Amino acid sequence: MNDSSKKFSKATIIDIAKVAGVSYSTVSRVANNFAYVRPSTRARVLAAMEQHGYVANPHARSLHRGKSGIIGLLVHTLSTEYIGEIVRGVEDEIAQYEYDLMLYTTHRHQGKETQHVSTITRGFADGLLLVVPMGRENYLDALRESNFPHVIVDEGEADYKSPSVGITNRKGIYDATRYLLGLGHRRIGFISDKMKVNTAVDRLKGYKDALAEFGVEYDPALVLEDDFVRPQPRIITETLLRVGSPPTAILINNDPIAFRVMEILRHEHGLRVPEDISVVGFDDISMASLVYPRLTTVRHPLYEMGQAAARLLMERIDDPDLPPQHIQLETELVVRDSCHDLHQAMEMAESDIVKPIERRNGREPSSPRKR
Amino acid sequence: MNDSSKKFSKATIIDIAKVAGVSYSTVSRVANNFAYVRPSTRARVLAAMEQHGYVANPHARSLHRGKSGIIGLLVHTLSTEYIGEIVRGVEDEIAQYEYDLMLYTTHRHQGKETQHVSTITRGFADGLLLVVPMGRENYLDALRESNFPHVIVDEGEADYKSPSVGITNRKGIYDATRYLLGLGHRRIGFISDKMKVNTAVDRLKGYKDALAEFGVEYDPALVLEDDFVRPQPRIITETLLRVGSPPTAILINNDPIAFRVMEILRHEHGLRVPEDISVVGFDDISMASLVYPRLTTVRHPLYEMGQAAARLLMERIDDPDLPPQHIQLETELVVRDSCHDLHQAMEMAESDIVKPIERRNGREPSSPRKR
DNA sequence: ATGAAAGCGCTAACAT
DNA sequence: ATGTTAGCGCTTTCAT
Question: Is A263 near chain B, with CB under 8 Å?
Fold first, then answer.
């Protein structure tokens, strides 16, 4: 409004109309590529637009059209590859529809703010993507009531009231658990997100199913709930190692936490992975194949999930009355080097003087220089 | 505009005015918390707003005010912790000013599109943050010409025409190189981003300065330029190992690439880090302390950089005529376990039968199970 | 093929 | 303390 801000205020449709010597509705026609504009007129308008670097004010346009070409994305944080990959999928998909992305981080809009998020988004964006595993009930209801186009990303099987995209969580963990059981492991630690999170429930089921199938009794002492937003890998690890008959393998429902557990196992407990203890992660982020030992994990198709969610949202923006749909993508067990075959280990032990238990503190990490 | 979309179109200021039995300017006054509204009237309006879940249409508001409360963020990709941390800093900072974030990914708006980005952003957002190390000349000029508030994030020392935030790149690498030299290394590989990127130039300078200080001759064969957008760690590594007198240490200007190089060194060349070859990274992302061996690297204050950039931008939105300013944040060498002390190694070798050269393929990674 | 004019929802003078 | 009104910049009938 003040003078200095005028400096970068763009030419309006009226300015262009004046320069081109036409009415501003004609400029609008040219800008929107409508038919029935005489080629010579069009050229003149185009020239004027070019000259002044004209571009339509998106707010005015949105105001009139009643839609903005923007979709909102609600996430907890951006600092993880997990979310980065999802956003990449979303971005690539909506680019085809010429949509743009508005970012909302939930930790800002806390408490009563959480409700505002949906309200803010409503009216500003044409649709909303939610990557928020919990604490969303209040505004989810509001979104459904007002029939505002939205899609939940990475949803479990519990709640299909809203359209959503997810993965085969149960099967993913089922496969991983079976794999460990197949290697001879019977005491398998399970580090899970809070059971408030739907996907965590599904995954625990996969764990139990596999155990049952192998006739292994389910031991609650081996199942630890952590808050994946603020994980406590040290506490979790120590708790698990202190269990009466400690686990020979740990299934951790999140790669980054698995990395931290491995680090703790190695540097604070002198345990080797996989020789002394096996580790399996979940997500298969890029680091999984770069750590040492390379992490065996369950691939989570994050990019594809983002794409699918965006596509679903586009459909619902077109027709908000579509019945809620849930898309489920396939996981895949990726076997790398972080698990030990106990059968093989047995044979070794028989022809070996070193017993497994003695190995534990046998080898310190080389060159333990301080930070 | 069609019927179904009406379903979630919110009540307007006029609807509320009717319900509350006042004029809509009064509603506006209440919505904007103006004085001089009789408490009873205010209460009535508030009730009506509550009842209908009223929230002002942001486009109408922006249109009128001439500003939107939005800042644009232009990044290449979101899939890295690097960018995630920056965005987190930005987010936290702008939240205090009640600004929101609009995301633009450059790989979408390529070629002539790149120009559109600035034009789109102009008029829609009140300011723009750029995390784009290269290929931005065209629109940067346009931004400066129109005096549109913008800040370049992670800028080197070459270009202070635009306001920017960066780090002590030269010193960061200078410290790291000195550290390696201090450990006795004389052949130090240097893997850098393209020299088109300003920061890469600064860093190379730091490398050369340290070398000169130790009287070590600069060998161009040890300096490899890679494209950090599409890195080729395998090629780089092999090239470096094939140099006549190969490096005993490698300085890699990016942690994720350092992780990949370490993996390649280990699994494809049977080399141990740090015993056979030392590695230093740059950025100190969270994984640096979780890999094995823990990575010695240069800390890049990403979060703080995001904050500083956002703060600078806020200032410039307030007063676009401020002279361009450059903020430089401090780096810090973080010593962990990925570097070997050659002096120490010498002593060892003398009292050891195993010569360094023989060690090279001496130890395969344990349990080399296939993926 | 083009111009005139209404209106999208809101804010901010200007009245009263 | 509240109502009236003129835009903000654009799209879109409706005329011509």
Answer: yes
Residue B143: band (very low, low, confident or very high) from pLDDT cuts 50, 70, 90: confident
Strand segments (E) across chain A: 70-75, 100-105, 127-131, 150-153, 164-167, 188-192, 223-225, 249-252, 278-283, 296-299, 326-329, 332-334
Find residues whose C-beta atom lies within 7 angstroms of strand D. Answer: A 9, 12-14, 24-25, 28-29, 31-32, 54, 56-57, 60-61, 63-65; B 21-26, 29, 35-38, 40-42, 60, 63-64, 66
B47, β-bridge pairs? none
B181-224 tens-digit pLDDT: 999 999 999 999 999 999 999 999 999 999 999 999 999 999 99
Protein residue nearest nucleotide C3, by CA to C1':
A23
- For range A34-54, the mean pLDDT: 87
> How far apart, in Å, are the Cα atoms of A234 and each of A191, A200, A222, A271, A333?
12, 20, 15, 14, 26
Residue A131, SS3?
A: strand
d(CA A118, CA A121): 5
Rounded CA-CA distance B297/B309 in Å is 24
> Which tops the pLDDT comparison, A134 or B236?
B236
Tens digits of residue pLDDT in A262-314: 999 999 999 999 999 999 999 999 999 999 999 999 999 999 999 999 999 99
As a whole number of angstroms, the distance between CA B235 and CA B241 comes to 10
Contact A82, A136 (CB under 8 A): no
Tokens of A144: 């459904």
What is the side-by-side strand order in the sheet with A223-225? Answer: A223-225, A188-192, A249-252, A278-283, A296-299, A332-334
Q: Does A334 touch chain B (CB under 8 A)?
A: yes
Read off the tokens for A329. 């993508």
| Among the partner residues B85, B123, B147, nearest to A7 by beta-carbon distance | B147
Distance CA A98, CA A273 (A): 47
Taking the Cβ of residue A55 and every Cβ of chain B, the question of whether any pair is shorter than 8 Å is answered with: yes
Is the model's pLDDT at B291 over the cut of 90? yes
The pLDDT, as a whole number, for residue A118 is 65
A360 phi and psi angles, rounded to 5 deg: -45, -55
Chain A CA closest to residue B92: A108
What are the C-alpha distances in Å from B308 to residues A48, B151, B163, B315?
39, 10, 11, 11
Helix (H) or strand (E) holding A272: none
Lowest model confidence (mean pLDDT) among A41-50, B108-117, B166-175, B250-259? B108-117
Q: Is the pLDDT reported for residue A98 higher than 50?
A: yes
